[in-house]
Amino acid sequence: MEIIDQIMKARDTGATELRLYVNNTHEIPEELYSLSNLKNLILVSWYTGLEEVPLIIFKMTNLTSLNLSGSSNSFKSIPDSISQLVNLTNLTLNCDGLKDMSPNIGKLDKLQNLTISSRYLAKLIPEMGNLDNLQSLDLNCDNIASFPPEIIRLKKLKSLSIQYQNRVSIPDEVYELENLEELKIKASKLTLIPHEIEKLKNLKSLYIESQALSSMPDNLGRLPKLMSLSIVAQTLTLFSEVFDQLPKLKELDLNLAQLDIISDTTGKFDKLTSLKIKLTEQKSLPAEIFQFNNLENLEIEGEQIEFIPSEIGKLEKLKTILIDCKNITKLPPELAFISNLENLQLQCPKIEYPPEEFLLFRNLKQIKFHY
């Protein structure tokens, strides 16, 4: 469908959302401006893309959400005209080729959610510190070397996601964002999490992914509101110092090569209801995980894991179990002791049939086998 046809259809139906695919042979018709009901515009420009954002976009002052997505040939800069979109609450700049952003982005007083993804952007504008209502910031920018100091003025920021390949540390300014509730870091060269993380007293969710992380800080217990922890780090093995200090966790997601829990977990972690564990090099599961008596969701994945211990039958509150282990040949009959189990999913190609004990399940509503 031609662009003008899409616009006319959106006008006739009173559409509030529109997605347009454009390239450098396209001109954006002036009729786009006539879409008075439009609130959400998604402009996609790949391959032979538009180097500049069409100026007509900035006349659409009713927009509350703008998504610009493009290849390395598209949307290389964001012009000063961006400040005309005074009602924007969501701005997504998913532009590989983006190199420059206008400081006028800092004038978007209503902006709550900002996403920036670029392979070439080298710095963030200081004016981002003026976004008083910003609540979520998602950055996927490999070449950003540092954060502007002004970023710490984002007092309403609750969610921060940073993804980059070339940094070995987290910008210091992150630890000054005292109202953060969710922090997600993906950095392949990150080697450590500094002790300054304890400044984030309102943090509820922490996600760390790194190919170089070898240890965790010993002060995570000073994050009184932390309820969800996710770690993806093939170089991290000893986890006891982390377990000992996180009795308030509700969700724990671990993707490691090996896991060695050497502390006694009996009676601890009574709030932990969800455990996802993936081990790429370990043949057995740590016995301590079967002491988490209040688990309701358990997911186990591991190419080398050869058996599920019978102690799993002690987790009487489990409602959902997912097991993805290609070397397991049978399941423990003690699974039948879990009377609350409702959902069982197995991705274990060497298991020929479920044990007869499965017939004893009283509340099981769903069984899925994937071979």
Walk me through what this model shows.
The chain has 371 residues and is mainly beta. It has a domain at 237-371: Leucine-rich repeat, LRR (right-handed beta-alpha superhelix) (Alpha-Beta Horseshoe). The chain is built from two helices and 18 strands. The chain has helices at residues 3-13, 240-243, and strands spanning 17-21, 40-45, 65-70, 77-78, 90-95, 100-101, 113-118, 136-141, 159-163, 182-186, 205-209, 228-233, 251-256, 274-279, 297-301, 320-324, 343-346, 366-369. The strands form two sheets. The protein has a 16-stranded parallel β-sheet with strand order 1-2-3-5-7-8-9-10-11-12-13-14-15-16-17-18. The longest helix has 11 residues, at 3-13.
DSSP helix count?
Answer: 2
Mean pLDDT: 88
Helix content: under 10%
**C-alpha Rg (nearest Å):** 25 Å
Low-confidence stretches: none
Largest sheet: 16 strands, parallel
CATH architecture of the domain at 237-371: Alpha-Beta Horseshoe
How large is the share of residues in beta strands? 15-25%
- The count of DSSP E runs of length 2 or more, i.e. the number of strands, is 18
Distance between the termini: 42 Å
N-to-C SSE string, H for helix and E for strand: HEEEEEEEEEEEEHEEEEEE
Instruction: Name the shape in a single word.
Output: globular
Under CATH, the topology of the domain at 237-371 is which?
Answer: Leucine-rich repeat, LRR (right-handed beta-alpha superhelix)
CATH superfamily of the domain at 237-371: Ribonuclease Inhibitor
Structural class: mainly beta
Strand order of the largest sheet: 1-2-3-5-7-8-9-10-11-12-13-14-15-16-17-18
Question: What oligomeric assembly is this protein in?
Answer: single chain
